[in-house]
Request: fold
Amino acid sequence: MKPFLCLLVVASALPAQISFDTLKDAQQDAGSWLGYGKNYAGWRHSALTQINRENVARLTPQWVYQTGSSGRLQATPLVHDGVMYLTGPSNTAFALDLKTGAEIWRYARKVPPGAQGCCSDPNRGFAMLGDRLFKVNFEGTLVALDSKTGREIWETEIADYRQGFSATNAPLIVKDMVITGIAGAEFGTRDFIDAYSAETGERVWRFWTIPEPGQPGGDTWEGDTWKRGGGSSWITGTYDPELNLVYWGTGNPGPDMDGDVRPGDNLYTCSVVALDADTGELRWHFQFTPHDVHDWDAVADPVLVDVMVDGKQTKAVIQANRNGFFYALDRVSGKFLFARPYTEISWADGIGMDGRPILIPGREPTEEGNEACPGLGGGHNWQATSFSPETGLYYFQTTDGCHIYYKTRQGYIEGQWYQGSTVSGVPHQPQTGSIVAIDPGNGDIRWRFEMVSTPSAGILSTGGKLVFSGDPQGYVFALDAESGEALWRFPAGGSVRGSPISYELEGKQYVATAAGGSMFVFGLPEE
Amino acid sequence: MSRAILALLVCGVASAQDNPFRDSAEDIDVARGAFRIYCSPCHGIGAQGGRGPDLTLGVYTAGETDRDLYEVIADGVTGSEMPGYGERMNSDSIWRMVAYVRSVANPDTTPASGSADAGRRLYAENGCAGCHQVAGDGGRLGPELTRIGRSRSLDYLREALVAPDDEITAGYRTVEVITLAGEKIAGVEKSLTNFSAVLMDAGEKLHSFDRTELSSSERTTRSLMPSYEASLTGARLDDMLAYLRSLRGEKESE
Reply:
């Protein structure tokens, strides 16, 4: 009897392991943060209310963890059972004690010389299942780590960095699979979305974001241009358990700005694809920017909301696209519902009933340079967004302004830049930015928090009717979720490029966000 | 061990060889694409300069040989804003870039027609040293000019004198604020954020504000540098240009 009792005691002390069911119910677990978008719908909303509009002005740092990294953190940390799991740039990761910020373990893996991406070597976070953590490494591998030790359990090569591939996104767990994207469109790669066995690391399925000749969509490429067609998948998708569909955004075609070498719509670039979670088969797709020449990736969070559209309750997937339009699609069928501009746009005179942009001629990049709005990074780029079921509003940041786009004919060399040119600023018109609150049912902008420069950070909304974000000058701040009024700010001294989260420990609510190479945790002072 | 030896050998070969891509139009074109991505934010879309030196002048501060240029691109330049690209670009890509940089060089051999000595006097008379430093002497509000004759063309310098608002050097943007008490202050932007503003006025005094203390704070398209279009004309402008051209970071020009 005694040994049995002892076992019981041990068993009750074990933390609850994260299962697929746990992840499906993640929105109800306000104390934790178990996945990139918090829940499968990508809401990034914490129901916690302890920190609210009345007391947020008193928010103070509780601890700071300095990774020692020279790069900037871009991750969404995960929080589970008293531990924060954080990934850093250059293949680093950290497990931190939630109460003290003390480091429990550290993971580091040298980035091989020659591995390169468009934009340094960031990482955007872990996924978690059972007692394992999953992350991509920059050189295009996926690793499973023991959450207790940080020790590698398995490693799988997703793609060969020598061909120009790189990996930066947080993976997505669906059932017993780890789903991940890849980057490389600036290097003339042909990209994809993959699912791997969480147990063994073996690949379960692959969806090529660029179809071959003879496949549906293959006729949107000419000759062998599909082989260098890009279509990166570098931000985490979302998942609808009822429909068993994975929604994932894809990036630009390659080469980015020289569209002359790749006539056609260039499917499935700049699209959202809905994939059967078990097989990776394409159920539907929607292309936001056919034949893109401005690098307007569609990788931004495809957020799942049920909203009234034209008086009808609709299962929608919404996206603040980099091309300057906010879109709502029927997430069952992929049918276009509506699109509305949220920033200055000079390339299209709206979106037609068929979902295709009504192009304004003469806005394409040229050798001499040609102005178009929005600029290269959008509009809204990749930074995480938030939907609050309490205010019914969708929050995202946007860069407001234009760029001069240049086109350069460029030969392809494996593993080398293949962007077909670049942008420069418009003289005397520096880009600014804003955080926008939009009604996802009709695209009406409810409020706009104007910023002096281009934004950098993701967004969290909370049950305390607050929106948290940060800026590249190092401020972490909180806005009133209903009015956009700034209620609190803290100068963290490093560009805020990650995405804030909120969680609870011992009955107290915290907000955590990275700034520079450090993790900051904020809470209310003790009474 | 064997890898280390191999790396040394490769390094030795690279340092001894001529640039293998020097005359290859195709490789130069590849590098032009990469230049536009990596380098144009500072050196300009056509290498004409901006935040960084004008590379079309064919004058290189950190060494003139191909190997010097290779090392500048790979390792950066200590004490300057030029970073190293050795981790992002492989050896071939760097050599291609060296070939591209050489291909855009079109040395400005036009002699400055004015008198550098007369220009030096004009520089003093017009109070330029109030804002600009040359070899350690002068103010710190505007860009340092110690090597300006190496890094900028005569055309650029002429425009900077007569139409300074057309292009404000990066890091010298003007901010104007009005305090709640109505005081208007203009200065070089040291920091303008969503919540604060720090600027240096013409007297090199730093002003720091929480933006709640200000009724307005905005970047302007006006440079704090006055235009000399009316006061420096004809031979006087040529003299000033001759003086600026003579500022090459060498002792005799100080």
